[in-house]
Amino acid sequence: MKEYSKPKCKSSLNKAELAAIDRLCWSWHDPVQLERCFKLITNIAAALIGSYGAAVIIIDDNNSSPNIRYFWGLDQNKCAEAIKAVEHTLTQKELVSTNNGFAVVKLSADGDVKGAIAIDLNGRHVNKNVACTLQEIGERTGLAMARAGICEELFERLAIVDGLLEISKAIAEEKELSYALEMIAERAAAAVKAELTAVGLIDWRTKELHYVQSFGKLASKITGARQPLTHSIRTLVNRDGTPVIINDVSADERIPSEAIAEWGVKSLLVVPMKVRKRIIGALMAANRQGGPFAARDLRVFETIANHGAAAIAHAQMHNKAKTALSNLEAEKAKLEAVLSHLGDGVVVCDDEGKVVIMNTAAEIITGLKQSDCIGQYVWNLHPPVFQSEAKRIIQLMGESQPESSAFWEQNIRMPDNKIVRINIRPVFLKNGAFLGTATIMQDITEHVALDEAKSEFVSTVAHELRTPLTALKGSLSLVLGGAKGNVDAGQAELISIAQNNCDRLIRLVDDMLDVAKMETGHLRMEMDIVSVQERVLQAVKHLRHFAEERGIRLAVKIMGKPPNVVGDGDRIEQVATNLIANAIKFSPAGSQVEIKVRQSHGHIRVSVKDEGPGIPADAQKKIFDKFYQLNGHVWKKDGGVGLGLAISKGIVERHGGTINLKSTLGKGSTFTFALPIPGEETLPTENDDD
Question: Is the dihedral of CA 116, 118, 119, 121 positive or negative?
Fold first, then answer.
């Protein structure tokens, strides 16, 4: 065999011949023009060599074996020899070669061989110039064929694109899922000329492939059918998601025999449907009598499957969104019904402070209409004198952290003299993002009036009781002093008991008066420069005898030189006395009460630590409430009426301070109050260790 590399010479073809080749071979899939093209190129090629026989042998896209599409001057044996010559030449790199008595010219374009011209040499030879011309014929013809093939493919693609556009239109118009499925099955059948197409979606709940839509003669049988995933067409693409063509299903062991018997298909094309690389189902095409599927069909089917999967995913998402929206609307209706029947006003704002929800009670309390408030900044709902403060509070809420449990509460007098309790809390999503604020409004005008009446009543009763008690105490002192004659030991003891109880009643009345004054804002404070440690030491001095009687040791620790504070010295001493007296009352004999004074975080902190029974966790939040008393013998036996801690809290807060409790049941309690140092702004923390 003699082979020719690309010759360094010019072709002997004239312009007319070159133009004819280009023109005729351009119409590659027009039968009439195709015949003319083959006749022209074989005549020119044979004439160059002086041959009397030639053939055009084509390599079909669907079949790698060469087949003769046009020949003249060759008998059957010569045709077979020509095919063998071409088959051998296809393994070589050269474009023009001789083999088996034939000159073979490859019809190629950019390395893609479309076929070959086989020219019977009849003992003749091919010189360099002839080889150059033959190569020119082969390249011209191959290029024209490639262009013609591209045109045909473009027309086919246009038809497919029309179908894809319809599918995309279904997506854009948010059609129902059934419409999208019907469109996919119908367009897929038209694109690959299949007798049957089906769309199967995976039902992960039942682990089945559900044929939700089909098109063709067997559609009624297939639509709605289900197959286990392990015995369905999905297994063909299960491992790596590679599409599959099976043109003889009877010879493929992957296809269940019962499926072949039931559907009677001969060829099968299966392409996975993927959404973000996840297989959601499969698109299938089958033929019972039609021809086999080709590589081009596979490419087309993949394109439709990709668009179809997107359409299905979009339709499913659309359906889910509709369902979710319907559920949200139902929940919103329920929420609005609940809110409209609440006695308290509710105003919900977004993260910018604009009102998004406002119930009927809030309309009544504020005197504003919901329609006028929605979309407005919430601080505009408050009285003008409070608007700047409300704006600051809302903004601070947005800066808080979910775990801080922040809230703000205050009673406000409205322009119509209603008193409204405002409670503002931040609202956070599960991920910690700030969503907005919820404001609860309570009209407490009647409650405040009742409290004021109650406080006035208590104050009046306390005053009425204090006067006779003071007179009684004075009379008892006179009798005990011998103003009415000598008093023996027995009489003196009885009079002392009466005096002690009289003092106890006077203290109770004083406590009731203090509570009444605090509630009405009339508790008077004589503010001055005060040494907290001196007031604490004074309280300890007064209670030292009481502690000794009960077998309690008082230990006082003054840490460093705490600075003075601005406050009412007598009231500060009253707080220290209450806390130390309580610690003594509830501590077992032989134990110690530790009193510590120190400077910390811009405050003077006073802590009183005992070794008593401790306070239950559920009672610690109520311990500073008025008249609250712990249940149980250990607390009841020495308990008062439950005003001391409430008064202490009120006094400390009037000084701008805080009071808190740390207690563990069975391990004692520590009460701590903190008073601010002038010029210091840092607040104390409850977790600050003593």
Answer: positive
Q: Report the pLDDT value the prediction gives residue 687, as an integer from 0 to 100.
A: 47
Report the amino acid identity of residue 68: I
Contact predicate 590/584, CB 8 Å: no
> Domain 15-154 in CATH: superfamily?
GAF domain (3.30.450.40)
- CB-CB neighbours of 683 under 10 Å: 13
Reported as half-sphere exposure (CB side, CA atoms, 13 A), residue 65 has a value of 3
Amino acid at 83: I
One-character DSSP codes across 71-94: EES--HHHHHHHHHHHHHHTTSS-
Rounded distance between C-alpha atoms, residue 605 and residue 533, angstroms: 10
Quote the radius of gyration of the chain (alpha carbons, Å). 51
**What per-residue string of b and e applies to 637-662 under the rule 16 or more CB within 10 Å gives b?**
eeebebbbbbbbbbbbebbebbbbbb
Q: Can you give the residue ranges of every domain in the chain?
A: 15-154, 174-320, 343-523, 528-676
Query: For residues 413, 414, 419 and 421, what is the CA-based torsion angle, rounded to 10 degrees?
Result: -90
Could you count the other beta carbons within 10 Å of the beta carbon of residue 52? 12
pLDDT tens, residue by residue, 29-64? 555 666 777 888 888 888 888 888 999 888 765 555
Place of tokens 């003249």: 72
C-alpha distances (whole Å) from 601 to each of 140, 596, 682 are 93, 16, 6
In CATH, 528-676 is 3.30.565.10: yes
- Give all strands (DSSP E) within 303-400, no chain letters: 345-350, 355-358
The residues pairing with 670 across neighbouring beta strands, listed in sequence order, are 609, 662
Helix and strand numbers (H, E) in the chain are 18, 24
pLDDT band at 553 (very low <50, low <70, confident <90, very high): very high
Q: Give the Å distances, CA to CA, from 160 to 224, 353, 541.
A: 27, 53, 101
Split at pLDDT 50, 70, 90, the class of 684 is: very low
- Superfamily for domain range 174-320: GAF domain (3.30.450.40)
Considering only CA atoms, which of 188, 189, 166, 192 is closest in space to residue 179? Answer: 166
What distance in Å separates the CA atoms of residue 84 and residue 68, rounded to the nearest whole number? 11
Strands (E), 380-433: 408-413, 419-428
Same topology, domains 15-154 and 174-320? Answer is yes
Q: How many CB atoms lie within 10 A of CB 267?
A: 21
pLDDT in tens, 73-132: 888 888 889 888 888 888 888 888 888 889 998 888 777 788 888 999 988 888 888 888
CA distances from 346 to 361, 386, 423, 443, 571 (A): 7, 18, 10, 12, 40
**CA distance between the termini of the chain:** 105
Mean pLDDT of all residues in 418-427: 86
- Name the fold adopted by 343-523: Beta-Lactamase (3.30.450)
Token pair for residue 179?
């419409």
Q: Tell me: pLDDT of 261 over 60.
A: no
Residue in 111, 117, 137 with CA at minimum distance from that of residue 21? 137
Q: How confident is the model at residue 187 (pLDDT cuts 50, 70, 90)?
A: confident
Position 547 confidence tier, pLDDT thresholds 50, 70, 90: very high
Look at 394 and 7; give whichever has higher pLDDT: 394
